[in-house]
Design brief:
Elements: E1 31-38, E2 42-43, H1 51-61, E3 70-73, E4 78-81, E5 87-90, E6 98-102, E7 107-112, H2 116-123, E8 130-136, E9 140-145, E10 151-152, E11 154-161, E12 175-181, H3 184-189, E13 191-195, E14 207-213, E15 224-231, H4 237-240, E16 251-254, E17 263-269, E18 274-279, H5 281-285, E19 292-297, H6 300-306, E20 311-313, E21 317-320
Parallel strand pairs: 14-20
Antiparallel strand pairs: 1-3, 1-8, 2-10, 4-7, 5-6, 7-12, 8-9, 8-11, 9-10, 9-13, 11-12, 14-15, 15-18, 16-19, 17-18, 19-21
Length: 321
Amino acid sequence: MADIANKPNCGGSTSTFNSGLPLCDVIRKAPKALLLLDSGVEFTPADRASIAVLVAAIKTKTRAPRGGRVYPIMSISDYADTSKAATKAAIGNLSIQEITMQEGIPSFDFKHYKGELFQKQLSKAEGGNLTLMIIDAGNVLYGTETSAGNLKGFTMAEFKAQLAKFATASAPAEYPFSITLDSIVEYRDNLMVVQLDSTIFNISGIVDVNLNTTDAPPVQATNVMKISPIGTGGKNIGILYPGILADAAAWVSKGPTGAAFTITSVTWDSANTRFNVTLDSTAFTALTTGDKVTIDLKDAASLLALGADGYESLGPVTAIK
């Protein structure tokens, strides 16, 4: 019977190496954008049927529920490769030969020029258990291949939003962040590259929306809640979408038990820049004093379907009967 014990690989029929030049190859260019992905997000061969199909799949994932989302960082103003070379050591005291003791560690420094609030947002990625894909200036997407042939992001050992620096007389303000990858095997041996086109840069991330209410504390004598949806940076998105968000289909409400609570109408109050969200009067009257009803915007995919793309609520407001 066959036995592979004590039979080292000496090349020949078991080797996978050849030295012929590829008929066409990819030469890396400077990174232009990054994709952070929730752990487990992968793109199958079917997702890679064409450039348009893959770009559409990535774009859809940017609006997916958390746990299956892609978070694009499309504004990189500077880049430096800080990868550490492999560690070598001499074989012995009498030898001048050195062998590799530890593989290199891929790491990168980036900067953006979007400002303080964006830097603060990046800090939230530090504990997000996210993976990384890189898009270079040649529209090439870099990721790693799974055993099933899927494309996924590189595992990160660390994502770190570094300290911002004030501008000087000779240099602008700096907003740096750094990334260290976890696996040289993912980055080198299992590398997957996909040639895209400039349409990949049409994707965008989601803007956080804080729902403010003029009722403080929010004790409700009536069934009408007054809500101002303020996007990160202070812009009231009701001003941008007064008609689209003045629709009960854009909102969701839950009663004291967590069951759905009916919203009968939503109107835009342009004078006070807020939405008046009217709850079902019969159901509201039936509540006991102290009962709580929550009101929130629907998820990003639902808002996209209505025509308000790229927004997600940070959490509901609460009405107390």
